[in-house]
Design brief:
The protein is mainly α and about 140 residues long. Helix content is about 35%, strand content about 10%. The radius of gyration is 25 Å and the shape is elongated.
Length: about 140
């Protein structure tokens, strides 16, 4: 039995030349033009960089910062004391503390997304491994 396609799909297919290689800007405009979904669809892009990943000088690693982020704010706590605590507050940490923060987490408080510890606080934070480990 032949598989039939919808009218919107067939109209979009007429606008695409499968034998043509599109420039990046043209491809993006074409994708926006043929979009017929009722939701924000995903676009997948693959690049062939012709690198030999077995060579150390040709390995490629990177990160992309999305222009509008992911839409979720991260709540950051910092285990620090003294000058490090002041530096963490200036850097924008939501909660900064030392032993009081350790005790608060031992009591079950886990209302944060990211935890950072200074080296001088690691012995106290290491004791929280069983609590923080499952939280990842």
């Amino acid at each position: 039995m032949a598989k039939t396609r919808g009218k919107k799909y067939q109209e979009a297919l007429k606008k695409v030349d499968s034998n043509k290689e599109y420039a990046v800007n043209d491809a993006i405009n074409l994708v926006k033009d043929i979009d017929f979904a009722n939701f924000d669809s995903t676009i997948e892009v693959a690049f062939n960089l012709n690198v030999d990943t077995k060579q150390a000088d040709q390995q490629l690693r990177g990160a992309v910062v999305l222009p509008n982020g992911t839409g979720k704010d991260q709540k950051v706590i910092v285990f620090a004391k003294g000058a490090n605590a002041e530096a963490a507050k200036e850097a924008g940490a939501d909660v900064v503390g030392d032993q009081d923060l350790v005790d608060q987490i031992k009591d079950g408080w886990l209302d944060f997304d990211v935890a950072i510890a200074t080296p001088d606080m690691m012995p106290q934070v290491g004791a929280l491994g069983r609590v923080l480990g499952p939280k990842a």
